[in-house]
Amino acid sequence: MKIDLTETTSSKINAALVQARRDIGTPAIGMVLTLVIVTDEENAYDALKSANDAAHEHPSRILVVIKRVSRSPRSRRDARLDAEVRVGADAGSGETVVLRLHGELVNHAQSVVLPLLLPDAPVVVWWPDDAPPDVARDPLGALGQRRITDTYASENPQDALTQRAAAYAPGDTDLSWTRITPWRSMLAAALDQQPVKVSSVAVEGEAENPSCELLAMWLADRLQVPVRRMSSDGPGLTSVRLETKDGDIVLDRADGSLATLCMPGQPDRAVALKRRDTAELLAEELRRLDPDNIFEAALKFGVSKLGAESPAAAPAKAEAKAAPADSPETVTGPKADSAPAKPAAKPAKKAPAK
């Protein structure tokens, strides 16, 4: 069932939701959360489709906030709210309200959304494309226990990661981080099977893919070893190489769907590592509503070292440069383990004259 409301209010939208549920014979509310999608007209269809697919696992009330920027000064002064209410088969497993805000109402979106939130249910706010610099302080973001962004949709993903780290608050997350969950699980399982000391890491992927940066930050933070960031033609992440004294552990995915795991002393094995769509990523994030401390640690550890040759090697280089050329601290590698030089022999004493 679809109900179009023009020049309406939040109270009229609530009344329309109640009436629509009665008309289709389901007066009870069986939803577990409210998902607020903040987007524009161009990306609204794709975002709503992904949210409806994710709602099959997480039945929710979906509120799509579309801010219609007026062109003329007169239109900007006028405030108008148009809504489209969808219940039943047209809304998947929950309820959907598409809100189009015009004029001055664009700056007060939270006043429209607040009366439509489900009582005593968590709120998740999702920006599919451009997100504000500080999502936790945004008026709509402040309504949510969980705030989801996607730096992959930004013009400059590295700058977006820098902003996310500077303004991070508990409850923030990013779909670029969600994309590497299978990679992190596979690499952690590989190290569990072979508990060896990793000396360095190489992460290879598309140059403008923030998931590659986040995976490199996570590895540098957890392993405390130098991590090299290398570029490839993609798609997405293509390879991770963990260098150890017993041989390299390599997880390589060249086609975006099937990967090969190579481990020393074991035959190569094929593992499913396909690129997931937005609905699967969103459904994963909706499974947990508590702060992601691992994401916070990875984001804050490496964000200041983006573009560096090795996040963990910079301090070592600075120490080596500060030490004198003939100082013992500059000796590295095998020379550092060699036996110390014997002291020079003392000059022989002169025999007493007879």
UniProtKB/TrEMBL annotation:
Matches recorded under InterPro entries: G6PDH_assembly_OpcA, OpcA_G6PD_C, OpcA_G6PD_N
Segments of this protein annotated with the region Disordered: 310-354
Residue stretches making up the Glucose-6-phosphate dehydrogenase assembly protein OpcA C-terminal domain: 170-299
Biased composition regions of type Low complexity, renumbered to the chain: 310-346
Annotated ranges, domain Glucose-6-phosphate dehydrogenase assembly protein OpcA N-terminal: 51-165
Domain of life: Bacteria
NCBIfam families linked: OpcA
Protein name in the entry: OpcA protein
Native species: Streptomyces roseus
